[in-house]
Amino acid sequence: MIYHHILAAYDGSKPSDKALQQAVMIAGSKPGTRLTVAYVQYQPAFAVAGYGFVPPEGYQEKIQEYETVMLDQARNRIASLAYASVAVLRGNPAAAILEYAQGNNCDLIVMGSRGLGAIKEWMLGSVSHHVVQQARVPVLIVK
């Protein structure tokens, strides 16, 4: 199948790195295919039902350092492709990925599998599971 715009979800993990490698291979096989690497910044709530958590000093700086290194790695992986870019999204990861894919006419979503296991996935949920269930385009999950 020929894809015109591939969206690769990337968070710096090994599964997402494998997925990005696969997306680069697919996009590189057809000249003119566009590849967008999407990283979602997700800020969990630090307060629940009147109880709060104060992030340790330097927390935000460490997150920014990690994101800078990770996004540089993604840019290096896609450097050989003429029509590739990185997008930084915000919000719930699954919802942000789905919204971007629909709003930007992506015709394939590529993402890694966390491999949580049946019980953990049932209890915690899974970004990849949610995307597979809700996407209106094909989704490739790379293990």
From TrEMBL:
<protein>
    <recommendedName>
        <fullName>Universal stress protein</fullName>
    </recommendedName>
</protein>
<dbReference type="InterPro" id="IPR014729">
    <property type="entry name" value="Rossmann-like_a/b/a_fold"/>
</dbReference>
<comment type="similarity">
    <text>Belongs to the universal stress protein A family.</text>
</comment>
<dbReference type="InterPro" id="IPR006016">
    <property type="entry name" value="UspA"/>
</dbReference>
<dbReference type="Pfam" id="PF00582">
    <property type="entry name" value="Usp"/>
</dbReference>
<keyword id="KW-0963">Cytoplasm</keyword>
<feature type="domain" description="UspA">
    <location>
        <begin position="3"/>
        <end position="143"/>
    </location>
</feature>
<dbReference type="InterPro" id="IPR006015">
    <property type="entry name" value="Universal_stress_UspA"/>
</dbReference>
